[in-house]
Amino acid sequence: MDASELDASTVYVGMVEAAPESRTPIAPSAAEPEKPVSMEHEKPARAEKPENKIVTGQPRRPSPLGGRKPTKEDLLAFATDNPDAIDDVLPLPGSPINLLIVGINPGLWTAAVNAPFARPGNRFWPSLHRAGLTDDLVDASRGLSPQDESQFLRRGIALTNLVGRATVRADELTKEELRAGGANLVRRVRELQPKVVAIAGITAFRVAYSQPRAKMGLQDTQLITGWPPASKLWVIPQPSGLNAHENIDSLAQHWRTVWEARGA
């Protein structure tokens, strides 16, 4: 609703009292032109567009590098056994989650800036944007800004990893790590109760849940002990540039399919 204020200036017109009849009437003095009424309209406050509103989630650490890109020397420092090399992107407790995206594990660049899929050349962010799941194309190479994070949280999208240890390549993970990560993800899903879970990587999924013949797409969660039936599970291709079988368009189609499944 527009709010306005009217500042009406009252105008008094000067009048000369008439002379007695025996005298020559004195012509009344000409009234000064009426001043225009002052109208001051207060501009209504602009409503903030939903896409510009910052939605905050659970606290995350800032980039260890303070907003710069890592050097080769920096990357080596993050090749450790730290099981929590990167923070998850999660909404505040109790908030609904439409889609929980699960990476396999963070790469060294990702750990260095504490931002998911941060290495330049990874097709995660371009494919997600092309699928319409972000308003803007996110550049996470220097870290994840509150605005970037908010694009996910507004839609009820969260991110985590199957394994928290950072490596150069996902195939450096042991079978034991993947299976432990799979069991931990079941617990997380029971806690977070997302409508849909999307694991990005079929090879790691097969190992984590002992399903060597599993294929891409919607999974039968009855084969996974403890998986809550209300949360649908999809496996989609790895968005890494090393995956020559996919491109941005094909990955975007996978994201669209997964996103539409939340309401099915």
Tell me the span between the first and last alpha carbons.
38 Å
Q: Give the count of structural domains.
A: 1
Low-confidence stretches: 1-32, 36-47
Largest sheet: 5 strands, mixed
Q: Write the CATH architecture name.
A: 3-Layer(aba) Sandwich
Q: Counting H and I runs of at least 4 residues, what is the number of helices?
A: 7
SS elements, strand count: 7
The amount of helix comes to 10-25%
Q: Can you tell me the overall shape?
A: globular
Oligomeric state of shown chains: single chain
Summing up helix and strand content along with how strands pair, one would put the structural category as: alpha/beta
Fourth-tier CATH superfamily name:
Uracil-DNA glycosylase-like domain
CATH C-level category: Alpha Beta
C-alpha Rg (nearest Å): 32 Å
What string, H for helix and E for strand, traces the elements in order? Answer: EEHEHHHEHEHEEH
In round numbers, the mean pLDDT is 86
Fraction of residues in β-strands: 5-15%
Strand adjacency order, main sheet: 4-3-5-7-6
CATH topology (level 3) name: Uracil-DNA Glycosylase, subunit E
Short description:
The chain is α/β, with parallel strands linked by helices and 264 residues long. It has seven helices and seven strands.
Q: Could you please describe the fold and organization of this structure?
A:
The chain has about 260 residues and is of the alpha/beta class. It has a single domain, classed as Uracil-DNA glycosylase-like domain (Uracil-DNA Glycosylase, subunit E, 3-Layer(aba) Sandwich). About 25% of the residues lie in helices and about 10% in strands. It has seven helices and seven strands. The chain has helices at about 70-75, 110-115, 125-130, 145-155, 175-190, 200-210, 250-260, and strands spanning about 5, 40, 100-105, 155-160, 195-200, 215-220, 230-235. The longest helix is centred in the C-terminal third of the chain and has 18 residues, at about 175-190.
